[in-house]
């Protein structure tokens, strides 16, 4: 048994296709298959069921894969401990970020991060919160940028921002005339929501108990994009809630309404596995983000934090 075989094992479990797993490992499919067969022969068990519908781990295979992920995480951390001690930040940084944050935050920090650490290969992927959490545990991501608290003992949370929820209201809607809004106002008809699976949707529903967006209308629409919801409102259809980073350039727009105190916010944190050792990189990324956003958004302002689960 060797580390390369464990890498092939995890790749096959991740992609569930021999050809794709081999491609991700930069080897030929026969090479990957042969090495996994040797591993199975050494262990004396079948790790994967090969069928015409694809590849699935056996019951014992799932346990072996889980332990293999743990072994490779420990090996990766061993190398990173040495790098930190030598003052080096090299290799790969795999970062996952939720879609309601990515368009507004990634452009603020990505360029400076790669310029500061030219030997670091930064890979950013938009994922929903549940996917980020699972990939952090599976050693498929190094850092997550998502809404907290998560209350997960395997993960460490480093709060960065407390981002207010704001109303985005059509000129033709009854709430448009108000200077501020409140959770009680959110019972008004015409509220547009994100699709199921987005933590932002769950937070909006935790702020209020809305009427359907399409009340009195001959259609329904749930979007995966904050920008699409804003565009619907701009075309004189109802209202929605948006994160403040999405409207930083239009805070003077009368369509944008703040909540009366206590202002509801979402806590945004950098999240890592408890075994994460590149702490200087984590602190550097946090510092870059804080320098790029208004000071009022910095975590620790004691606002009303809205949970998403």
Automatic annotation (TrEMBL):
<keyword id="KW-0010">Activator</keyword>
<keyword id="KW-0805">Transcription regulation</keyword>
<dbReference type="InterPro" id="IPR036390">
    <property type="entry name" value="WH_DNA-bd_sf"/>
</dbReference>
<keyword id="KW-0804">Transcription</keyword>
<dbReference type="InterPro" id="IPR005119">
    <property type="entry name" value="LysR_subst-bd"/>
</dbReference>
<comment type="similarity">
    <text>Belongs to the LysR transcriptional regulatory family.</text>
</comment>
<dbReference type="InterPro" id="IPR000847">
    <property type="entry name" value="LysR_HTH_N"/>
</dbReference>
<dbReference type="InterPro" id="IPR036388">
    <property type="entry name" value="WH-like_DNA-bd_sf"/>
</dbReference>
<protein>
    <submittedName>
        <fullName>Transcriptional regulator</fullName>
    </submittedName>
</protein>
<feature type="domain" description="HTH lysR-type">
    <location>
        <begin position="1"/>
        <end position="58"/>
    </location>
</feature>
<dbReference type="Pfam" id="PF00126">
    <property type="entry name" value="HTH_1"/>
</dbReference>
<keyword id="KW-0238">DNA-binding</keyword>
<dbReference type="Pfam" id="PF03466">
    <property type="entry name" value="LysR_substrate"/>
</dbReference>
């Amino acid at each position: 048994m060797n580390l390369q075989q464990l890498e092939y094992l995890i790749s096959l479990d991740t992609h569930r296709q021999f050809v794709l797993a081999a491609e991700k490992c930069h080897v030929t499919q026969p090479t990957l298959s042969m090495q996994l067969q040797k591993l199975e022969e050494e262990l004396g068990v079948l790790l994967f069921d090969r069928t015409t519908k694809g590849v699935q781990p056996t019951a014992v295979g799932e346990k072996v894969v889980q332990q293999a992920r743990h072994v490779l995480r420990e090996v990766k951390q061993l190398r990173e401990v040495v790098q930190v001690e030598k003052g080096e930040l090299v290799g790969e940084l795999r970062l996952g970020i939720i879609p309601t944050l990515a368009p507004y935050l990634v452009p603020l920090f990505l360029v400076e991060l790669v310029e500061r650490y030219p030997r670091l290969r930064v890979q950013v992927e938009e994922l929903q919160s549940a996917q980020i959490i699972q990939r952090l545990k599976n050693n498929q991501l190094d850092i997550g940028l998502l809404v907290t608290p998560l209350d997960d003992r395997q993960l460490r949370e480093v709060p960065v921002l407390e981002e207010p929820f704001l109303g985005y209201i059509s000129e033709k809607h009854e709430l448009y005339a108000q200077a501020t809004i409140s959770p009680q106002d959110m019972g008004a008809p015409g509220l547009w929501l994100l699709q199921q699976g987005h933590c932002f949707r769950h937070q909006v529903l935790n702020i209020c108990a809305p009427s359907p967006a399409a009340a009195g209308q001959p259609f329904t629409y749930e979007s995966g994009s904050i920008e699409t919801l804003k565009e619907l409102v701009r075309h004189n259809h109802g209202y929605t809630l948006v994160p403040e980073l999405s409207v930083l350039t239009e805070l003077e727009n009368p369509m944008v309404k703040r909540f009366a105190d206590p202002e509801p916010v979402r806590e945004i944190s950098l999240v890592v596995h408890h075994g994460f050792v590149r702490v200087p990189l984590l602190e550097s990324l946090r510092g870059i983000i804080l320098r790029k956003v208004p000071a009022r958004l910095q975590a620790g302002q004691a606002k009303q934090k809205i949970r998403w689960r």
